[in-house]
Write a structure and sequence with these properties.
Elements (H helix, E strand, L loop, with lengths): L7 H7 L5 H14 L6 E5 L5 H8 L3 E6 L2 H11 L7 E4 L11 E6 L10 H13 L1 E12 L1 H6 L4 E5 L3 E10 L4 E12 L2 E12 L3 H11 L2 E6 L13 E7 L1
Parallel strand pairs: 1-2, 1-4, 2-3, 4-5
Antiparallel strand pairs: 5-11, 6-7, 7-8, 8-9, 10-11
Length: about 240
C-alpha cells in the first residue's frame, strides 16, 4: 500500500498538534521580510487541505495539489463550505502542471523529503519554477539530515478514539533514506481494521537543495531555522527555504 492511502481518513486526528495557523503566520512574515505580496498561491503536497483552507480564508486565490486521491478527497470535503474554496489538483510534484501560474508556491511539512530520488527533487523544483509568475516566490521546509538520522531505531505511538498507529523508523546510511514502517489500526464499528504503510524520506543537505534551486533558475535563495529569521544552527530539526523567480 502506498503512503497515505490508508492514513488519509485518520491523518487529521493523529496530527492534531500541527500548528498550521502558526506556520502560515511565519510564512506570511517571511514574505513580508522579503517584500513579497502574492495574490495567488499553490499549496503543493496539500494533504488533507488544512493549510490550503487557511490560505483561502486569508484571501489568497488558492490552488492545492497532492498525489494522493484519498488525501484530496478529505481536503475537498474540508473546504466545501468556503465561499471561495481552493481549486484541487491531483498531481505529483515532479510532474506539476498548472492551468495558470501563481505568485507563490508553498510546500510544507517535509513534503520534499518524500521525493527519495534527488533527480525527482531537482525536477520538481524546475516544475515549480515554471509554475510561478515573474517575481513569484517559493517557500518550503524539510526535515534536516540530522533529524532523519536521529530517528534511526525510534518507535512512536499515536492514538485517539478512532485510530491507533505505531511508527518504526530506520535510517539507511547508504541510501540516505529514513524508512517509517507504520502499522495503523482504524475502528470500524466494534472491530478494528489493520493496515500497513511504508513512508520514506530522503536526507537532503542545504547545499544540495540550493544547487537544485539555482539550476532551476531561482535567485535570492535563503534558508532559515525552524520558523526563525536566522540561518539554521547545528542540530536544527526543520529547515525553511525561501527562493524567488
Amino acid at each position: 500500500m502506498s503512503a497515505y492511502d490508508a492514513l488519509a481518513a485518520s491523518y487529521d486526528g493523529l496530527t492534531w498538534d500541527v500548528p498550521y495557523e502558526e506556520i502560515l503566520a511565519y510564512l506570511q512574515a517571511l514574505l513580508k521580510h522579503h517584500g513579497a505580496s502574492p495574490k495567488s498561491v499553490l499549496d503543493l503536497a496539500c494533504g488533507t487541505g488544512s493549510l490550503a483552507v487557511l490560505l483561502a480564508e486569508a484571501g489568497y486565490r488558492t490552488l492545492a495539489a497532492d498525489a494522493s486521491e484519498e488525501m484530496l478527497a478529505m481536503a475537498y470535503d474540508k473546504a466545501s463550505d468556503l465561499p471561495h474554496p481552493p481549486f484541487f489538483i491531483c498531481q505529483r510534484m515532479e510532474a506539476l502542471t498548472l492551468p495558470e501560474p501563481v505568485d507563490w508556491v508553498v510546500c510544507c511539512l517535509d513534503s520534499l523529503n518524500y521525493l527519495t530520488d534527488p533527480r525527482d527533487a531537482a525536477k520538481a523544483l524546475g516544475r515549480i519554477y515554471e509554475s510561478l509568475t515573474d517575481g513569484g516566490v517559493l517557500t518550503f521546509d524539510i526535515n534536516s539530515e540530522e533529524k532523519l538520522r536521529g530517528l534511526d531505531g525510534q518507535i512512536f505511538l499515536d492514538e485517539n478514539d478512532e485510530s491507533y498507529c505505531v511508527w518504526r523508523a530506520e535510517f539507511d546510511e547508504a541510501e540516505r533514506i529514513c524508512y517509517y514502517g507504520m502499522d495503523l489500526f482504524q475502528r470500524q464499528g466494534k472491530l478494528w481494521r489493520r493496515s500497513f504503510e511504508e513512508h520514506r524520506e530522503y536526507a537532503y543537505t542545504v547545499s544540495q537543495l540550493k544547487e537544485f534551486l539555482q539550476a532551476a533558475g531561482f535567485s535570492q535563495i535563503e534558508c532559515y531555522g525552524d520558523r526563525q529569521f536566522t540561518p539554521p544552527k547545528a542540530g536544527e530539526q526543520r529547515i525553511y527555504f525561501y527562493a524567488a523567480k
